[in-house]
Amino acid sequence: MKENQKSDIAPQDKQWEWIPCQYDVKRISKDTETTWNLSPSVQLKIPSDQGQIDPVIDLKIEQSRNFIYTNKNGLGWNWHKSWNLPDIGVELEITDPTTDEKLAPPGKIYAKIQIVKPTVSPMKTFHLLEVGVKGNQKMDLENNKCIFSGLKFNTTSYNHDHQKFHIIITLYLCQSKFEFPQILISRISPPIFVDSRKSARDIEQQNKQKLQSYFDPFPITTLEKQFTTTKPQNTEVITNTIEGLNNYFSAPNIRHKVKHPVFLCIKFSSCIKLYLNTNVFKFQDSKSLVLTIQQVLYKSTNNNVNNKLDQKYIILCVDSSNTISKFQQHLKKLQEFLEPFNNDDIEVVIDPIELPKNFTQITDLADIKQAYIDVYDKLLQLKKNEQQHDDNQEQEEQPRKKKKPKEQEVVQNNQEKIIRKVIQIQGPNISQQRSHHTHVIQSAEMLIEQQHQYLDKEHVKEEHIIQEEKPHQFGLPDLIIQQTAINLNKFLLRALLPQQQQPQ
Q: Disordered: where is this region (predicted)?
């Protein structure tokens, strides 16, 4: 398979679509390495007067909810390792192309789910490597349907060089316990990035919440409150100076420190200056200005965009020009206290030589103070709306399950629309001979294991012949198995040898 086929199954589109999968899959265990191809290895036929008709086979896959999609940094579809996967419902639909009738499939079909990652071997051949899944990955089809529930990813993309994973769902047809399952149809999902609960994305969300706590509306009473700091020998009043600002941030007795830019520029007006980008803030009345500042603060992001200073929305300037030299040491500490303010839209600067021309300073602080008091209730409503938005977003990202339909309803619906026609099975598909030997390796191991299990369970002897099975209820031709344990070994020999060398 060509290396460039990797792009066929890795669309970075927001459109979620299950596409046909005909790739090689490799499974590596402690002692063995098995490779097989997922192309269909069996064909279904509809007998007719004109010969045989190929039915239309469709595998419908539905999920109880979508995976998370994130545009940032091209992350695309993603999920948490500790979350259950969405319930995945599978339905096999077989249609007669001449009449559009829905046909009942042959019996003994099961679905299997796998988690894989794309890999290119040293020989430059592309294949999918199985990485494992937690939970029951094999389900029998009942009434043409099954539901995978309670599954989890077994590992994270971080453990696999940040590679994204794919989900594969394959339908297998196995008419007898002595017959190797044949692939009927297979589908593969878009790529999914899997991280852990302690991922960088969660840390980013925590940082965002912490930053928003700085910007939450502060009580009006704090504007007039006289703050003090407790020192070993006395209690010192916090003044409107660089030293006072430093004492405010470092005071252990002030448990809930207000760090809102509007509060800082009013309370410490001698050393904190607030500058706004005139391209963003259209200056009208002070009340509208305060509301706009609050909206901008809530919408500020920290995506490491590294906007230039003239592209910021707000600049918080620390002015130490009038500070006594002995207090210059406080500036370094202030930088540490104010560092969390810096993000894509806000910047803290100390004694700038020149600020961008598109910024203007807020100077009428008395008017801003009164405006803040007047619109305080509206600011609280903004906070409530922002919290509701975050809660809704978090809820959207949490796995939710749909109620499973009652089995009686499913049976009734299927009986109403499905026609019981005889469907013949032909296979294995001759066009898939290139994967014959890899199938046989797995076939041999499975059949040998089944042989021992059957002999232990039934206590049969070599001369004992398995009796005729009851014809399948869906109208399949009678299936008569007269196979001894010795004949089973003969079957394995036939499978492992090329067709021209097979024993008669």
A: 386-410
Q: Are 240 and 267 in contact (CB under 8 A)?
A: yes
Contact 93, 102 (CB under 8 A): yes
Q: What is the rounded CA–CA span in Å between residue 364 and residue 276?
A: 13
252 phi and psi angles, rounded to 5 deg: -70, -20
What's the domain count of the chain? Answer: 2
DSSP 175: S
Residue 21 pLDDT exceeds 90: yes
Residue 435 lies in a domain: no
Query: Which of the 8 DSSP states describes residue 165?
Result: B
175 located within any domain: yes
**What is the C-alpha to C-alpha distance for residues 408 and 412, in angstroms, rounded to an integer?**
6
Question: Between these two residues, 8 and 231, which has the higher pLDDT value?
Answer: 231
- Residue 13: per-residue pLDDT: 59
Residue span of the structural domain in which 107 resides? 3-197+412-430
Q: Is residue 11 part of a domain?
A: yes
Alpha-carbon distance 331 to 49, whole Å? 93
**Which pTM was predicted?**
0.47
35 CB neighbour count, 10 Å cutoff: 18
Q: Which of 30, 22, 54 is nearest to 188 (CA)?
A: 22
Look at the block and give the residue holding tokens 């002999």: 455
Measuring CA to CA, which residue among 29, 44, 3 is closest to residue 428? Answer: 44
Distance between CA atoms of 494 and 504, rounded to whole angstroms?
9
Domain boundary residue, one of 430, 456, 491: 430
- Over the stretch 368-397, which tens digit does the pLDDT of each residue have? 999 999 999 999 998 888 877 666 655 555
Residue 380 zone, left/alpha/beta (φ > 0; ψ -120 to 50; rest) = alpha
pLDDT of residue 383: 87
- Nearest-CA neighbor of 292 among 305, 304, 279? 279
